[in-house]
């Protein structure tokens, strides 16, 4: 009994260790410019950003490497969002890695796409391969970076997903990547919006926010700055009211079927680099992990203590004190 427990503990620890460095960065000596779950107001409909973006130093033609050993799974051509994209299947983890906005595929892969492309021209095409049929090595050059699909400038979009019954579960790729963020990191709560009024946040004091109704329904403008050149979305955002964890968002998992539900999480004024998060919701969505205002349903006091906690994937945390008052 004890032995079995020890062995399972060993397997558990080992698998956590193994999963944390499952993938190598698909662009070498690069850094991320966008994170998982960010708002995108570009394209036909607003949506969630379901991967991370790697800088290709504004160049097309940078080598794109397979993040792990696997096999060719899917090719997309001329997708309005992804442009030209490659998906690899990784049998060990049952995960799929995706690479988008590519300019050209490697010779080995374009052999398969060229015939179809000649036939169908610029239409959106998906080619699916039998899993395991076309092996791909770790760090094999599979393509060259570009700006096809929805890309303002050349970069590489990288994602990690798993097929479930009738949907895909999209994961924050940073949880699987061997990636070391070297730049200075700064989590920031910048402004608060309540009943269409804006409240400036005081860094080390208490920000007073007016509200009406039984409990506050606020939007908060947040970001994490990485060095001087990137702004990403904080990974977790929690709100405590009178020390009760009332609302929490965690951008670790989003279902592919939820891609166009970004407006349930992001408030008006949000763009691809400005994130107004709604700290309340009437919807159920994967990133909303706690949504329970029941403790305040019959609240009669006119002052509530609030706290907003921002967290990133590297273990940094920032806490802001609020005082909610009824004017
Ligand atoms: Zn992207």
From TrEMBL:
This is Peptidase M23 domain-containing protein. It comes from the Bacteria. GO terms for molecular function: metalloendopeptidase activity. It comes from Petrotoga miotherma DSM 10691.
């Amino acid at each position: 009994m004890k032995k079995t427990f020890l062995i399972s503990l060993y397997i558990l620890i080992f698998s956590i260790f193994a999963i944390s460095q499952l993938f190598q960065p698909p662009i070498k000596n690069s850094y991320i410019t966008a994170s998982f779950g960010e708002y995108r107001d570009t394209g036909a409909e607003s949506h969630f950003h379901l991967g991370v973006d790697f800088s290709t130093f504004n160049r097309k033609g940078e080598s794109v490497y397979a993040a792990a050993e696997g096999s060719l799974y899917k090719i997309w051509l001329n997708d309005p969002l992804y442009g030209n994209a490659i998906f690899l299947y990784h049998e060990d983890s049952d995960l799929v890695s995706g690479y988008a906005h590519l300019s050209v595929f490697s010779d080995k892969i374009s052999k398969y796409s060229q015939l179809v492309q000649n036939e169908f021209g610029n239409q959106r095409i998906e080619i699916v391969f039998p899993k395991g049929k076309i092996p791909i090595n770790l760090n094999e050059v599979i393509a060259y970076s570009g700006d096809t699909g929805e890309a303002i400038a050349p970069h590489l979009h990288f994602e990690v997903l798993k097929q479930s019954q009738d949907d895909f579960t999209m994961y924050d790729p940073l949880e699987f990547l061997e990636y070391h963020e070297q730049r200075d990191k700064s989590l920031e709560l910048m402004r608060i919006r309540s009943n269409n009024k804006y409240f400036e946040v005081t860094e080390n004091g208490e920000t007073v926010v007016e509200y009406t109704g039984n409990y506050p329904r606020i939007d908060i403008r947040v970001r994490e700055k990485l060095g001087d050149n990137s702004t990403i979305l904080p990974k977790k955002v929690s709100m405590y009211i009178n020390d009760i964890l009332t609302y929490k968002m965690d951008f670790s998992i989003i279902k592919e079927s939820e891609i166009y539900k970004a407006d349930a999480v992001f408030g008006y004024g949000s763009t691809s680099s400005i994130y107004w998060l709604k700290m309340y919701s009437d919807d159920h969505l994967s990133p909303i992990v706690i949504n329970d205002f029941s403790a305040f349903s019959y609240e009669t006091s006119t002052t509530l203590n609030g706290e907003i906690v921002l967290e990133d994937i590297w273990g940094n945390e920032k806490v802001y004190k609020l005082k909610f008052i009824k004017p």
